[in-house]
Design goal:
2 domains, six-stranded parallel sheet, alpha/beta
Length: about 290
């Protein structure tokens, strides 16, 4: 069993990006500039955005944090989006989700300039991805593809089962792994909460991508020997045994599934660190496109 180490891989990626940014500075080019829009005081969002800002500093990016009050109106937020779209010094930006309930998330995401949409959520970018055109790939699926490539996990001709059909992870993964190329060329089954006899299908899978959001959902008796496991789940579960009062669990019963696996991502330390690294990579790509 080999651990797909997201911490180590993301660290390597950041080093590679930092080297490239250093060369850009030496040649007199402007460095990538990533902005983040944060509305309100959601704890998880504050932590995540803070991590993005620190990561920008690590690789030599410029970064801007636009922290707006929870009471901001939808129209006011759209005006801020227009300003970011028009700002020539910003290569890419993200709008941290979730947004307050009085704001239509889809309306906000649609207003983002696709050329600056480094989250890869805009329908224009999603459509290009489905058509196998050059575009921004959502950061978490992009990170999974990078892990598979760097660890040389064979996907050609394999049966991949994706559990979860979100637009952020499940659907993009089903598209990316079935497309031509490497990683890719797999036969993909996309499953969700209404799928019948789910365990019968997971038992046939060569590769399983778990993105359901239910801790320890995937048990050892649901997989075959030699399976590749990608666990995207990350849930805080109360724990008296942990000083923090909680533990982080994935969608996979790691302790019992790992011995049957050929490759598996840990939680934490697997897919999570890759997400921010690939957001940086998308921003670098956006910067290069703008300069060219």
């Amino acid at each position: 069993m080999i651990l797909l180490d997201g911490r180590k891989t993301s660290s390597n990626l950041k080093f590679e990006i930092a080297e490239e940014v250093s060369q850009m500075k030496l040649s007199g080019q402007s460095v990538p500039h990533l902005a983040a829009v944060l509305v309100g005081e959601d704890g998880a969002s504050l932590t995540y955005v803070g991590s993005k800002v620190r990561s920008c500093q690590q690789v030599g990016f410029e970064s801007t944090l636009l922290h707006l009050p929870n009471t901001i109106s939808e129209d006011e937020l759209l005006k801020q989006i227009e300003l970011l779209n028009a700002n020539g010094s910003i290569d890419g930006y993200i709008v941290q989700l979730p947004l307050p309930k009085h704001i239509d998330e889809n309306k906000i995401l649609m207003a983002i300039d696709p050329l600056k949409d480094v989250d890869g959520f805009h329908p224009s970018n999603f459509g290009k991805m489905a058509l196998e055109m050059d575009t921004f790939i959502p950061a978490t699926p992009f990170g999974i593809m990078e892990l598979l490539e760097r660890y040389k996990v064979e996907t050609k001709g394999k049966h991949v089962v994706v559990v979860g059909r979100s637009q952020i992870v499940g659907r993009p993964m089903s598209i990316l792994l079935s497309r031509k190329g490497n990683p890719g060329n797999a036969t993909v089954t996309l499953m969700h909460s209404h799928t019948k006899h789910l365990s019968n299908i997971t038992q046939q899978a060569d590769i399983i991508v778990m993105a359901l959001g239910i801790p320890k959902f995937l048990k050892a008796d649901m997989v075959k020997d030699g399976v590749v496991i990608i666990d995207v789940g990350i849930t805080r579960v109360p724990s008296d045994q942990n000083p923090k009062g909680y533990e982080i669990l994935g969608d996979v019963d790691f302790e019992h599934v790992a011995p049957k696996s050929s490759y598996i991502t840990p939680v934490p330390g697997g897919v999570g660190p890759m997400t921010i690294a690939m957001l940086l990579k998308n921003t670098l790509i956006a910067c290069k496109r703008r300069q060219n």
